[in-house]
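We close this part of the discussion by returning to an individual protein. Part of our work consisted of pairing the sequence of a single chain with a tokenised description of its backbone. No coordinates are needed to read the tokens, only the vocabulary itself. The amino acid sequence and the backbone structure tokens for this protein are reproduced below:
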Amino acid sequence: MKIMENYQPKPIPQEKQTEKITVAVAVYNSDSYLDRTIQSILNQTYKNLEVILVDDGSTDNCPAICDKYAAQDPRVRVIHKKNGGLYTSRNVGMEAATGDYLAFMDGDDWIDPDMYENLLSAIKEQDAELAVCRYKWVYQDETVDISTGNAAVFEGQEILEKYLEEDDAFQIQNAAWNKLYKRSILGDLKFPARWYEDMFYTIQLLNKPKRSIYLDRAYHNYICDRSASIMNKGVNKRIFSDLIPNLYDRSEYLRKIGREDLALLQDYFMYKRLLIFYTQVHRSNSPEKKEYKAFLTQKIRAGKENYPAVYAIPQANPNEYRKMKIFLTSPALYNMTMWLNDRFILPIKAKRAARQQ
């Protein structure tokens, strides 16, 4: 990995914008946001675009909005389809793409005018096949942007390693929409037929480029206040039917490509999440509470033989292993320990930290 401070890709003159970027936009019941989303794409400083609006059976005004832009701008194509979920929209957009490079957008976010020009310029300058950028968190009362302006060039699987470490300094993330990449590297890669589809798609995608670049500049604006989003619904059945299976599939994939070290890293964060889910379920009023706790207990206990290797990795926090050992001894004791931790220990630590500032 090579770090470059204050890296700014050079502009691409319009006469040299010869390679086409396809932007596949998944659209579903977001008519209050969609105009802004589409306009932010069409107003890009990089003009050689193909914008594919995939209307996933919207029941609001989204179909009419999509058709309006297709009539106004020849770069826009619309595909109206029966509702099938986000993964189907992305796969349909991918299959219809004719560009040299591929990017994804959701129908309720928006991007800065120079996003695709900068990502493509960075790819060209660094002889890369994938570019990733940071994004802003947009709340009702503030926008959070912690960009540094630095960049990092990764060789081969280095970007996959950094992604799995969940290092906040590199906002690579599962998201499909903060990335631009050569369409030729995809092969037969598709989004899996399940919710949280980005999780398994991204781990495979990041294994493909020979070289990648990460720009620590926030060009994408991600709305964090969408109450209808599945990401904002707390404990829900999709965690158990889709998210957790994705976690296990990721570990299996890493072992399949011969990276046992990365599989253990993935396992570490997976079991950490399973314990968090258990705590959330225990404290919830879900009618499936008993069923979910039994499911999680079974999954956690099933990994017992693997824990010495999992918690021996350099990235492991010893406190996480202590939590796991308490849970294996007694889930009830674990629940009491977490209650005491949240009720007393964490507030005391927060007060001490505040006094030291």
